[in-house]
Amino acid sequence: MEYDPAPESPAIAHLQERYGLFIDGAFTDPAASETFASVNPANEQVLAYVTQASTADVDAAVTAARRAYETTWSKTTGAQRSKYLYRIARLIQERSRELAVVETLDNGKPIRESRDIDIPLAAAHFFYYAGWADKLDYAGFGPGPKPLGVAGQIIPWNFPLLMAAWKLAPALAAGNTCVLKPAETTPLSALVLAEILQQAELPAGVVNIVTGDGSTGAALVDHPDVNKIAFTGSTEVGRMIQRRVATSHKHLTLELGGKGANIVFEDAPVDEMIEGIIDGIFFNQGHVCCAGSRLLVQESVADEVLRRLLRRVDQLRVGDPLDKNTDVGAINSAAQLARIMELTAYGEEEGATRYTSSCTLPERGYWFAPTVFADVAQSHRIAREEIFGPVLSVLTFRTPEEAVAKANNTSYGLACGVWSEKGSRTLWVAERLRAGVVWANTYNRFDPSSPFGGVRESGFGREGGRHGLEAYLDV
Amino acid sequence: MSDQRLDVKKTYKLLINGAFPRSESGRSYEVTSFKGAFLANVSQASRKDVRDAVVAARAAQTKWWAQSAYNRGQVIYRLAEMAESRREELSEHVSLAEGLKLKAARGAVARTIDRVVWYAGWTDKVAQVLGSSNPVAGPFFNFSVPVPSGVVGVVAEQDSSLEAFVDAVFAPIAVGNAVVVLASERRPTPSVLLGEMTATADFPGGVLNLLTGFTGELAPTLAAHEDVDGLDLAGVDESFADELALLGAGSIKRVLRPSPDDSPVRRLRAFIETSTVWHTIGQ
């Protein structure tokens, strides 16, 4: 079935040509610094130029954050902090349509997702933590828990604004000041957020936003006056950061990669399960650390599940991310597309059977058709390495014990799914999975009240819920 | 000929997987009292012993965690019972090792045993204190439970021969981890005695593995081991702790560098993971 295009207007984004850094409550002059382009991955057009923050810029941001911490924020009552966060939440809601378009332009994700998931969840996160700011005494960490000081926060490109919210909201609620480093390829929504922080009249220096590449992140990690580093990104970079921080007294939380198993038992509710598998791997083009990238199907239903799954994959609408009918958008960058292509080539080379959606891909931009590999063995690279793209590997199992063993056969431990109508078995499996999050008869659900984070090489620390405060308190 | 009875001298051995082997290397080293008198020859564990202990701990952790929290509490409490009846022996060893007057050593042992009792009580409280039910926006039952990190490597404090050892070891064990501990290098005998008591307290073999030997030789192997999930670096100085923390980063370990200002529950939180389950609600 065909739909007429229903595109959202890119003009809603109101983007500026150039953006400075947000330091001490004001934007620096972009003309005075080196800049780089942020590109729309759906058509390779330049959206805006942003500033490449140097080590000196990072130092200025940390200095501003320290000063704001000492002179202002640590003297601001919890109730006051709370009201600032409520203001920010409300302003995000007010500018949600603009933010959704900015996010979709800069990231390539479907407008349906940025509009219905990223932006509302970002607002909800500020709203949730706003309420904690004046209730820290009751959060279970003893009376008068103290903030850590200046938090350096480095976020990825897959959920740019949402990750900024996950980092900033609990840090500010707990009384820290922040230096946020958005991802190189998706800096724009954080810069709109900076405008929102100005509108909210958040005191200068409480949040500073420095755009740039990996060198900017490294300068932030290495800065001696930062008390805490919070990082979301790949396990490879996380390991490097943990090493750099190991010999300092900085606090550290890491939210890293994953290779989530989505386990389907023969008694699973079929329609929900097929949608759940699709959502698990094709949501956000598979650029999701907790993606259900390994499908483990009970052997007795494997053929039927695969048949229905492939039929559904073929129906996914791939294309213009601004079109409200689009299911799967653009790959975020040329570099990520190259990585997906490299790993999927290994999939075929190592003997897995490849199915590719018959969708037609736009000519310009970075695109990858939804792909499913069947006959995958546990030793295959596509079953072990995080692809971070719309690529699903299908494996089978016979018994619950085997499902658990295969699901846990990874160095990661972020998220898993379990599909079964038998509650006792679901809980039995959930208890044995080494994962920070288990979704039962659903997948890829997020909520500010629900702690999120990994075990093993998927990192440590939690974001969301009461647990998320611990990452920003000296307890 | 004298009628005086010859003492039966004790051999101090390792504790790995519930058994008491000498080091696979056959090595031992001499431990003296605080005042310098010969105390015992103690097994000098090798890097291979560390690896064997990690394998044992990994297998035991599954069994330990599969037991009910109530049962784990009973096992830890049983250790307090065992230690209680051997307080005098422990006190003599603490006195010799730390150079304390016997009265002061008795105080330390009493506090140690009370601390074991404290941890026994935590096993079935942790989930309620650190877990939660989460009011998500949607038709889901969502709850978070603390689960153990898995295998925890502990470098025990060097000066406190028993009291600090108990905190470092039984905090992670109480919340369901298995432990490989490097005992105080120069003052190991009190903790070895306590380790022996775990064998009569129904701990599954491998839940506590205790190695004596040279910290400088063994700790890097423990810190770098990819099947160790957490590290407690209580017993090393700042620069060695830096080195070990760096090794631990290789496999994203949870690294605790305890400080005297820490809250008593910090160690309970240090080696747990919060696991969150979402389940649909519907008719």
Strand content of chain A: 15-25%
Q: Runs of chain B with pLDDT <50, length 5+?
A: none
Number of strands of chain B: 10
How much helical structure, as a percent, in the residues of chain B? 40-55%
Sequence stretches where pLDDT stays below 50 over 5 or more residues of chain A: none
Structure overview:
The complex is a heterodimer of chains A (475) and B (283). With 475 residues, chain A is α/β, with parallel strands linked by helices. Helices cover 38% and strands 16% of the residues of chain A. The longest helix of chain A has 20 residues, at 111-130. The relative contact order of chain A is 0.14. Chain B has helices spanning 47-66, 69-84, 87-98, 102-122, 126-130, 163-174, 189-198, 215-224, 238-249, 266-270, and strands spanning 28-32, 38-43, 132-133, 140-148, 151-155, 178-182, 208-211, 230-232, 254-256, 272-280. Strand 17 (437-440) of chain A pairs parallel with strand 10 (272-280) of chain B, so a sheet runs across the interface.
Provide tags for this entry.
heterodimer; A: 475 residues; alpha/beta; seven-stranded mixed beta sheet; six-stranded mixed beta sheet; 15 helices; 18 strands; 38% helix; 16% strand; B: 283 residues; five-stranded parallel beta sheet; three-stranded antiparallel beta sheet; 10 strands; 43% helix; 18% strand; globular
In short:
By secondary structure, chain A is α/β, with parallel strands linked by helices. Chain A is built from 15 helices and 18 strands. In chain A, helix 2 runs antiparallel to helix 4 (111-130), helix 4 (111-130) runs parallel beside helix 5 (160-173) and helix 9 packs across helix 10 (302-315).
